[in-house]
Specification:
Strand order of the largest sheet: 1-2-3-5-4-6-7-8-9
Strand content: 15-25%
Largest sheet: 9 strands, mixed
Radius of gyration: 19 Å
Length: about 350
């Protein structure tokens, strides 16, 4: 029976994945130019090296050794709130003006008790992604602020159809994009704090889960975190996942899976789990038993690492896959689990 159910979910997953007809295989690029402008105190000589692999390795080693500096942010000079729509300039500029303005949607709760949740949707989410979840959080008495990740929806350059520049076969641009999303998220926390919200949580799904975890690991204001679909290493997800097969096909032209895991370790939760030790953060780790994008073996590694490190956490297992999480009834099951956790732990 379990085998039949798993096969049914897998077929459903693949049908949902096949709906995206605009995936493009882009050329492999090291993208060192995207890293050159990121100043690190222990990388005084920049990215000079014998070749792109050596230069990338130097950068990764330096960033991991001082991740506080790598993910340090500056508060934006201005925030503009028009109705429920918040905008501000990103502290990590890219060459694309559209992407350099951060967009967020504010869902205040009628209960003014200082609790607020920063919500980060999944890869390629549209402007309406997780809006329903934000309204559900309101029903649980929680204020929500939904932020668009770098290169997503209103931040997408005109020549793109998908948020390809956030996850792609350009190694440096992918690092730059995820770092930008983390810095933007920290700026959102600044804004919430300035509005009187002192009990802050973060909730992220899929790619948003990775951004949320790295943000929580570097921002001590976070009291609770919900990580909806978890995995240890960014590179492993891209290399093995159903959603990123087109990215892997070009990555294979330049790197192996082991090399990719190393190069993207600087944007991987595995590198920062130790930063959650000894903190009063309550964490909910969600994984899907039949996930073909975040393979269960990698999700279980996260759960085991939390257990081994003695980090307080709860685990919720979804009886579906990655794409099917957004389908009825699994979307209701998932949303209620997240809201109940935050209502009880924030």
């Amino acid at each position: 029976m379990a085998g039949f159910y798993g096969s049914w979910i897998d077929r459903w997953e693949r049908r949902l994945a096949a709906r995206d007809l605009n995936r493009r295989e882009r050329p492999f690029e090291w993208g060192l130019d995207w890293l050159a402008g990121i100043g690190l105190p222990n990388l005084p000589a920049g990215l000079d090296g014998s070749g792109p692999a050596a230069q990338f390795e130097r950068f990764v080693s330096a960033a991991l050794a001082c991740s506080d500096a790598f993910f340090a942010h500056s508060k934006p000079p201005r925030y503009v709130l028009e109705g429920a729509h918040l905008t501000f300039p990103s502290p990590a500029a890219s060459p694309y003006p559209e992407n350099n303005i951060v967009h967020a949607d504010f869902f205040p709760s009628s209960r003014q008790d200082g609790r607020a949740v920063l919500v980060l949707p999944q890869w390629n989410a549209g402007a309406d992604g997780h809006v329903g979840l934000c309204r559900l959080l309101n029903r649980f008495g929680l204020t929500a602020l939904r932020m668009s990740l770098a290169y997503h929806d209103r931040r997408m350059p005109a020549h793109l159809e998908r948020a390809d520049y956030h996850v792609s076969s350009n190694l440096g641009r992918t690092v730059h994009a995820l770092r930008q999303s983390v810095l933007d998220a920290r700026c959102c926390l600044d804004w919430l704090e300035s509005r009187g919200y002192s009990r802050l949580a973060i909730l992220g799904t899929s790619l948003g889960s990775c951004v949320a975890f790295i943000t929580a690991a570097h921002d001590l204001r976070i009291r609770a975190g919900v990580f909806n679909h978890v995995s240890m290493n960014f590179g492993d997800v891209v290399w093995t996942g159903l959603a990123t097969g087109h990215v892997r096909r070009t990555l294979e032209q330049g790197v192996t899976q082991d090399q990719l895991r190393r190069y993207w370790s600087v944007i991987s939760p595995a590198s920062y789990i130790h930063r959650m030790q000894g903190r009063e953060v309550r964490n909910l780790l969600i994984w899907a038993r039949h996930d073909s994008s975040f393979l269960p073996v990698y999700s279980l590694q996260v759960i085991e690492s939390f257990r081994r490190c003695g980090i307080p956490h709860q685990v919720f297992t979804l009886p579906c896959g990655h794409y099917t999480t957004g389908q009825f009834p699994f979307n209701i099951i998932d949303g209620l689990a997240m809201c109940r956790f935050l209502a009880g732990n924030l």
